[in-house]
Amino acid sequence: MFNIKLENFEGPLDLLLYFIKRDKIDIYDIPITQITNEYISVIDEAKKLSKEIGVDEIRFKTAQVYDYKNGNDLIPENEKYSRYKKTKKGDFVLKNKLYNHCWRMWSSSVITFDGKLVPCCFDKDAKYQIGDLHSSSFKEIWKSKSYQNFRKNILTNRNKIDICQNCTEGTKVWA
Ligand code: SF4
C-alpha cells in the first residue's frame, strides 16, 4: 500500500492542522462536518495525483462510526464514502448485510496488556474476555469451551453480540 504525499500535505494530521490554521479555528472547537467535507474534497486531488504518477489503483477507506444509527457528523454526505446509508425514516443502517460468519475466529486473537484474551481488536474494552494467560496457556484458551461458544454465537446469532454489529467483517470498507 502506498502512502500518498500531496504537494503540501503528508498525512491527515498535517491537513487537519492546515485547516485549523487557515480558518483560525480553536483546537477545542473543531467543526467536524466542515473538516470532513474538506477531507473529501482532497480525494479528487489525490486521484489526480495518482494518475499523474502512474498509480495502478487508488482506494479510500471508509470510517467506522460507533454511534451511527441516529446520524453522526462523521458520516460523509456522499454515501459512496460511507459504510452506512440513510433510510427513508432518516436513521442510518449498515450498507452490508450482517452475515453469521467471521474468519478472525479461526485465525487470530487479541491479547490485552494485562494478559486477557479477547476475540478481536473490535473488543476495545475487553468486554468479551475468553481467557486469561496468567492461568491458562494460549492453546488451552484457543480450544476452550468459552472460545467455542463465542464462535458458535457468531455462526448463529452474530447480531446479538454488540461488538460484532458494526465491525469490518463482511463490510466493504474501501470506497
Ligand atoms: S467484532 Fe467482527 S471481527 Fe470481531 S469477532 Fe465479531 S464479527 Fe469477528
Please give a structural write-up.
- It is a single chain.
- This protein is of the alpha+beta class.
- It has 4 helices and 5 strands, in the order H-H-E-E-E-E-E-H-H.
- It has helices spanning 12-22, 32-52, 138-142, 145-157; strands spanning 84-86, 92-94, 110-111, 116-118, 131-132.
- A 3-stranded antiparallel beta sheet has the order 3-4-5, with no helix packed on it.
- Strand 3 (110-111) and strand 4 form a beta hairpin.
- Residues 102, 104, 119-120, 122, 154, 158, 163-164, 167, 169 line the site of iron/sulfur cluster.
Shape: elongated
Can you count the beta strands?
5
Sequence of strands across the biggest β-sheet: 3-4-5
- Summarize the main sheet: 3 strands, antiparallel
User: Number of DSSP helices?
Assistant: 4
Distance between the termini: 15 Å
Q: What is the string of SSEs from the N terminus onward?
A: HHEEEEEHH
What hetero molecules are bound to the protein chains?
A: iron/sulfur cluster
Helix content: 25-40%
**Class by alpha and beta content:** alpha+beta
Tell me the Rg in angstroms.
Answer: 20 Å
Q: Stretches where pLDDT falls below 50 for ≥5 residues?
A: none
Task: Offer a concise description of the structure.
This protein has helices at 12-22, 32-52, 138-142, 145-157; strands spanning 84-86, 92-94, 110-111, 116-118, 131-132. By secondary structure, it is α+β, with helices and mostly antiparallel strands. The strands form 2 sheets. The protein has a 3-stranded antiparallel beta sheet with strand order 3-4-5, with no helix packed on it. A two-stranded antiparallel ribbon has the order 1-2.
